[in-house]
UniProtKB/TrEMBL annotation:
<dbReference type="InterPro" id="IPR007730">
    <property type="entry name" value="SPOR-like_dom"/>
</dbReference>
<feature type="domain" description="SPOR">
    <location>
        <begin position="56"/>
        <end position="123"/>
    </location>
</feature>
<protein>
    <submittedName>
        <fullName>SPOR domain-containing protein</fullName>
    </submittedName>
</protein>
<dbReference type="InterPro" id="IPR036680">
    <property type="entry name" value="SPOR-like_sf"/>
</dbReference>
<dbReference type="Pfam" id="PF05036">
    <property type="entry name" value="SPOR"/>
</dbReference>
<feature type="signal peptide">
    <location>
        <begin position="1"/>
        <end position="25"/>
    </location>
</feature>
<dbReference type="GO" id="GO:0042834">
    <property type="term" value="F:peptidoglycan binding"/>
</dbReference>
<keyword id="KW-0732">Signal</keyword>
């Protein structure tokens, strides 16, 4: 290891201080340009997420069976009952068509009676606690 003489130490120290004083950090001004439609889209997503609740609504199962038949049943259902949403769930070994997101049992029972007139094997699914 080489030992610096006092004059070299001073020169080295002054050089380091000079170089360090010229270092600039990043500026704190940040400009964000975003499309106004993004905020609209974000608000719509928030509304949808608020309305989706998986465990506290009543649902109606209208079909259980093969994939092709489930797709056809859901398509027919959406044509007839366009105000009620529906989905297909796979539960081994069957595909199930589940419809509705009813907040109260009364609302679910009313829709169940309507749906029963068209589909034969329908039943109410209670929310899981």
């Amino acid at each position: 290891m080489r030992i610096l003489t006092p004059s070299k130490r001073v020169f080295f120290t002054l050089t380091m201080i000079t170089l360090a004083s010229n270092i600039n950090a990043q500026e704190q001004n940040v400009s964000l340009n975003q499309d106004p439609k993004f905020e609209q889209l974000l608000n719509e997503k928030r509304k949808i997420n608020a309305s989706i609740s998986t465990n506290d609504t009543y649902k109606i199962q209208i079909f259980s069976g093969k994939s092709d038949e489930a797709k056809k049943t859901l398509s027919d259902f959406k044509r007839e009952f366009n105000t009620i949403d529906g989905t297909i769930i796979f539960n081994t070994p069957n595909y199930k068509v589940i419809v509705g997101n009813f907040k109260t049992r009364i609302e679910a029972e009313k829709n169940l009676a309507e749906i029963k007139q068209r589909y034969k094997s329908v039943f109410l699914l209670k929310p899981s606690k």
